[in-house]
Design brief:
The structure is a single chain. A hairpin with a 2-residue loop joins β12 (353-358) and β13. This protein folds into three domains: 2-127, no CATH class; 154-237, no CATH class; 238-459, Thrombin, subunit H (Beta Barrel). It has helices at residues 2-37, 40-46, 56-80, 85-91, 103-113, 117-137, 149-157, 160-174, 346-351, 440-447, 455-458; strands spanning 183-193, 196-205, 217-219, 225-227, 229-233, 250-251, 262-265, 273-276, 288-300, 303-313, 318-324, 353-358, 361-370, 375-380, 383-388, 391-394, 414-417, 423-430, 435-439, 450-451. The protein is of the alpha+beta class. A seven-stranded antiparallel beta sheet has the order 6-9-10-11-8-7-20, with no helix packed on it.
Amino acid sequence: MEELIKAILIQLFILSLISERITNFIKLNLQTLIERYGSKSLSDRLGNLRNRESTEDKEKQRERGILNWAIVVSILMANAVSADLFYLMTDGKLQPQWEFSSMLGYCLTGLFISLGSKFWHDLLDIVLYTSNLKRKLADTTQFQQIDRIEQVDEFVNLFPSQVAQMALVQWKEQISSDELSNVMRVNSAVRRIDGQLKPCLYVYLKDERIPQNFNFNVLTKAGLNQPVHIIWIPRSAFPKPHLKSGDSVKLRSSLANGTLCCFLKKPNGKSVFALTCRHVFNPIPSNIQRFLENPKPVTSNGSKIGEWTYEQMDEQFDMALVKMNETSTIDPVPPFSKSVHQTFSDSDIRNMNVNVITKNGFKTGKLIAIHRNTSIPFDYNGDIHDFVGLLEFSQTDATESGRTITERGDSGSMVFDSDTKKPIGMIIGGNETSSFAIPLVDILEQLKTEIFFSPQINA
């Protein structure tokens, strides 16, 4: 219910911003346009909207005129985007198309939009503040150390992402290389643990020695001690590419196999491409982006489906494109939509459940962390390659019993939101507890492509 309210308020806020822009344009320019291209009498009947009046009565009349225009514009806006209030309150999104039977809902939405962006901004701010405070109140262990009003203010307003950043800074200041000599790298993140967002530090180790009874707290400006979860990752548990013989796609000359993610196409192009991971075809990490001069044949289930024509591997991508044969039949795709998940937030970490299409069918799991600006080291048979901006998934959000949702051979698998059916990312590998994926929105933007459904699917 809380997420539905947020979705409604955000959309009403955005629509009110657009409506205000249009109303302001009318206020400033309509009279000038009518006087220049219309008649003086029509301009007089319209009344003054642009300039402030000298008397109180006339100024109130001008404000009523602006309000009337705001209501008209807002109702037209609601109709233009099919913003039915009743549909919005049920599904938290706009109607797919305009319907005459929803006119009442459009008009009501328009009236709400006309209240103005400041109203919806303030209301949204109250809801977000209340939501954050509600989660804070569930953490009763923090109450015991509060003895000043400054600490109350900080406790209420401090977000897990801020605590995580503070933890990283204080770790570098307090923990010496002599104390933990086998630490290779430390990253900060917000992770879903037991249903709640918690500040975490991912500590990558050079060997298998995991420190015992090691606790780390962040000291805030107001003197609060905020606990931080430490995720120890020994050298053997670094994420690895998911490669295994016997999967759905491979080079004709290779034994290494992976999985097809989806099919892509340029907006006005004719060729169809299959998307998978670059390391499926070449397991040696490298910073590279190119079209192959000599495309290589690719097979699936023993039959040639096309040729490997493009590869890109850097800190953000591990992807390859296979240009499909014109004679290849593209089977119906699993039930995910063409519209991909665009942006990721802490709300997604808290609520998003996912499906992964693997060689063994559908697997279910949860989004547990977003590594926006931190690098994750991947082990390619002893060679380390860093990736930035990955999404982390697991079967459970419990740190002690987390289990990966993919296995060797699942590189390239599609991850999609189990509720909205929107594609989320492409699996590139994992370890025993987690799977990692590149956001699909980044891939589509980089390649300037869109998801392709075969004609028989659209029919």
